[in-house]
Amino acid sequence: MNAIVLDGLATAQQIKAELSLKVVELKQKGVTPGLGTLLVGDDPGSHSYVSGKHRDCQEVGVHSVRIDLPASASISDVKAAIKDLNDAKDVTGYIIQLPLPFGFDTNEMLELIDPAKDADGLHPINLGKLVLAGVDEMKSPVPCTPAGIVELLERYQVELTGAEVAVIGRGITVGRPLGLLLNKKGVDATVTLLHSKSKDIPNAVKRADIVVAALGSPHFVKPEWIKPGAAVLDVGITRVDSGLVGDVDPAVAQVAGYLSPNPGGVGPMTRAMLVQNVINASAL
After folding, report:
1. Per-residue pLDDT of the chain in tens (284 residues, 90 and over written 9)
2. CATH of the domain at 80
3. 130 domain-assigned
């Protein structure tokens, strides 16, 4: 048995084609969506990721503004850049690329973002709205990676209603908000959030219809943990001497029914959801 590939790259291209039509409609109404990015430091992965976001914007027809600051930038410098993006008329949504260099209080910086321009959906106000979300479509931005995971599963018609989902990793960008999004009314999955102190992770994973690995530990998820036919999404990534490695052992493909690879799975979906958040913010 070979798993059906949840192709995030192809799905993201489809989403961007849909978004480009929406951008044309908005521009005809005199509305121009605009993305801003604030990058501090010289992390090569962050630079590559931000460049990809700006390429996505160019492809879809979204205006973009990029602010890069050196690792030596002071807290005052970063706060000033955030204020500039809050005030910028041509920016309808922006992100602070994480991680920030050592010495910065990430939560403090995120709280300075205008919640209406929070393209990553990580401002406490927007996370709070996710906690309170009912069955209606959310108007506030949703964290991009969780939104991309749900969108990818839905487009491949993986059943979410009543599904048991094991999420490995409780980070603020994936694990915790993904649990909220999956069990909100209208999605209605049952989520087990696993982490480093969880007991008997293999058996918890074995019960799951859907497994999301987002912890950043190479090949952590083993094939013998997976229920035959389950959907498995490899989200965490680690840089090793041989290159980039995901959280899921490649042999899982012989057991799973669906597999989102890494790279080429959730990453492109995350970027597509970011552009969608920017466009949605401009339409409000």
Report:
1. 689 999 999 999 999 999 999 999 999 999 999 999 999 999 888 998 899 999 999 999 999 999 999 999 999 999 999 999 999 999 999 999 998 998 999 999 999 999 999 999 999 999 999 998 876 777 899 999 999 999 999 999 999 999 999 999 999 999 999 999 999 999 999 999 999 999 999 999 999 999 999 999 999 999 999 999 999 999 998 888 878 899 999 999 999 999 999 988 999 999 999 999 999 999 87
2. 3.40.50.10860
3. no
Report yes or no on 224 lying in a domain.
yes
At 161, which CATH number?
3.40.50.720
Contact 278, 62 (CB under 8 A): yes
Question: How do strand 93-96 and strand 34-40 relate by DSSP bridges?
Answer: parallel
Domain range for 193 is 143-267
How far is Cα 82 from Cα 96, in angstroms, rounded to an integer? 8
Q: Are residues 229 and 176 in the same domain?
A: yes
State whether 178 and 224 are in the same domain.
yes
Residues 147 and 258 in one domain: yes
Statement: the pTM of the whole predicted model exceeds 0.90: yes
Same domain, 47 and 100: yes
Longest dimension (CA), the chain: 56
CA dihedral sign of residues 110, 52, 59, 175: negative
Q: How many helices (H) and strands (E) does the chain have?
A: 9, 11
Nearest residue to 191 via CA among 181, 201, 200: 181
Q: Cite the active site residues.
A: 53, 97, 120
